[in-house]
Amino acid sequence: MYDTKSERKILNFTMTLLATATLLVASASMVMTNGTAYALPSKFNVEITSHDDGSKVPTGKLTISGTSTDDGTSKTEDCEVYVDWNDMKPYQEVTPTGPGGSDDYSTWKFTYTSNYHLIVKGDNNELTAKFYCQDDDSLGVDWDTINVVGAKHKENQHH
Q1: Residue 152's pLDDT is what?
Q2: For labeling, which of 43, 44, 104, 156 is most exposed (least CB within 10 Å)?
Q3: What does DSSP say about strands 122-134 and 78-85: parallel, antiparallel, or unpaired?
Q4: Per-residue pLDDT reduced to its tens digit, 104-148
Q5: Overall fold of domain 40-156
Q6: Closest to 85 measured CA to CA, from 72, 95, 94, 98
Q7: What's this model's pTM, rounded to 2 decimal places?
């Protein structure tokens, strides 16, 4: 397919560069402006703070909480936080609990119930918080994911 050694080197370099760029894009918070993706500064951030990755939780209902860099005071940004369970759609809007009122997602909470999905037994409970912040011509996005282990009440107790 490629006749010369230099053509193969160029192809290998291009493929390596593309793979590296893909990994960087996938791991960074992004902003889209006029169809072009740019890495965001740390001003866009969301974190699940109520549980650690791998922690044991009771099966059934579970309330999680977290923080984001939104404070509800910006006139140019419209920010919201959503959560999901194992990438199940539709995403669920959290309840903002920040001191700035109903638009302040600096702190937030969400309860997984049978209306969306309950926590199941085992380690198949990937919980993701997604932060979207829209201003006049760009969209800021960040996410945080933890996996919790659903355990029946006795299994959840520490020995």
Answers
A1: 85
A2: 43
A3: antiparallel
A4: 999 999 999 999 999 999 999 999 999 998 877 778 899 999 999
A5: Immunoglobulin-like (2.60.40)
A6: 94
A7: 0.69
